[in-house]
Design goal:
Strand content: 15-25%
Order of helices and strands: EHHEEHEEEHEHHE
Structural class: alpha/beta
Number of helices: 6
Largest sheet: 6 strands, mixed
Helix content: 40-55%
Length: 171
């Protein structure tokens, strides 16, 4: 581990999937990271594998992970569970079978690369599609959504991640 870091705090940065995709060009990455390192000493970086239905390829993610690890920086995975952030922060619908399957795949993929994964703050639902209305039944929206998100956390995040990497830490 790099010893030229701060003594009383650690610096962590989060790189969105869009920037991770640009990291395929290691010259691009090196130029930007050198500028950043002049202003702050980074201890940890989260490399996002998914946002807005965009998934960074494994070769790009592993290349970026390797780049940072060679510099003594801890690397973890990140997932943002959005369909289209620019469309009023459109998140996944957890009653939609295609969204559920996609999230399982993204989580398993990310857990195959990282021992720690953070879910960005878009792991929620405000969906009121016909499928959600039917699944809600007579419950309040609050009760329905709490139960739905608890189920989604277990079956779509925790279980798929642990199936691939039993020691993965989920944040």
């Amino acid at each position: 581990m790099n010893t030229d870091r701060y003594q009383n705090f650690a610096v962590a940065i989060y790189s969105r999937v869009y920037e991770v995709l640009q990291m395929a060009d290691l010259n691009w990455l090196n130029e930007r990271f050198e500028v950043m390192e002049r202003s702050m000493k980074v201890n940890k970086i989260y490399l996002e594998t998914h946002r807005d239905m965009v998934v960074a390829g494994e070769d790009i993610v592993r290349g970026a992970k390797n780049y940072f690890e060679q510099r003594g920086i801890k690397v973890s995975g990140g997932i943002t569970v959005t369909v289209n952030e620019r469309n009023r922060f459109e998140t996944y619908c957890y009653t939609n079978p295609a969204h559920r399957q996609k999230l399982k795949e993204v989580v398993a993929y990310t857990a195959s690369i990282f021992d720690e994964i953070i879910l960005d703050d878009f792991f929620f639902t405000s969906c009121k599609c016909e499928s959600c209305i039917q699944a809600k039944g007579e419950r309040s929206w609050t009760d329905f959504r709490l139960a739905l998100m608890e189920e989604a956390a277990h079956s779509l995040v925790i279980e798929p991640a642990r199936a691939v990497n039993p020691n993965v830490e989920l944040v």
